[in-house]
Amino acid sequence: MTDSFFLSLAQTSMFELLAPTPPGWGGNLVRGFINSIGIGVGAFALGLLIGIGGAFGKLYGGPVRRDLLQVYTTLIRAVPELVLILLIYFAVPDLINRLLDTLGYGRIDVSGPMAGIVALGFVQGAYATEVLRGAILAVPQGQIEAGRAFGMNPTMLMRRITMPAMLPFAIPGLANLWLVAFKGTALLAVVGFNELTLETRQAAGTTKAYFTFFMAAGVLYLLLTLISNVLIGRVEHWARRGRQPIAESR
Asked: Where are the membrane-spanning stretches (predicted)?
């Protein structure tokens, strides 16, 4: 009796592993996967913009700006992303709508994708600020002083010396932030946005093929990670062109 039970269980698991995705749901997973990529790209881009401004503000801004940025990076990194998503999706629109009602204007609605991009982007911005700040500090000071000696203004100095020189130091940290942003899109399932995790859960709940669908979702996450690693490796190789390889410099 026991042997037949375990044999049946093993056969069932193997069948679910080898069986194709039940018809009618493969397109949903692809759609959710594309939605996750879109949200991840938007959040990463917003975080990168915030991070660039935050890093330069922390290093070269006035005391008030540095203190405000320090508060921002500390608070955002301390609050879970899920809490930020819920605040932006529910609390912030409610406050804005109350203000608009008071002023006699119409109400607004915040979509799930917009809330996700803003919430994840603000989190990305806090981490990107520290990543880029460290990369800027890693630039040899002599290069910056040489640019100033040639009469470069701060904008030209940043564009021609600081940004190209800091890029090789920043890429590894930014690569991790991109992967975190993509995987963080799974949190948008709590506000009903049809990203990969929610589509997978709905498909698995309807068909009861939990193993098949969640394995398929895991493969999609892994696939994007592998592709991202290849692309990031090429970008890093391009950013380090003309430099001595790390292995040879030791």
From this structure: 33-56, 68-90, 110-128, 166-190, 210-232
